[in-house]
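Sequence in, structure out.
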Amino acid sequence: MIREFYKDKTIFLTGATGFVGKVILEKFLRSLPDVKRIYILVRPKRGVQIMDRVMKEIFQSPCFEKTRELPHFLQMIKDKIYPIQGDICKDNLQLSDADRQMLIKDLDIIINCAASVDFNEQISDAININYLGCLRMLDFA
């Protein structure tokens, strides 16, 4: 039933570089092979290309150990994973106009896993991602 629901669906996932987002992404790739495409929102970092960040911070994670054993793992990433540069803490998710339009036309499902779980973080920063970030995603949806 779940496999059928996600078949040929396009997903937009935030928080994929974090703990929960990585686990959800891994589970989709390993258990729902018929998902059409997964866009992942990735914050830019100076001097680091987005796909390099995705490969290092996400796909080299221990939670992808079983998935990396699949014979078609790299091809699956190439075919299904589309990193999108943006930031949930910024207005309009800091998406380019072209990326925003592409997502609007292509998405079936939005999953927001972006959050801060650092209890020592400034309250204004925690509110910006955990509360205002959700509102920004709602506005986008």
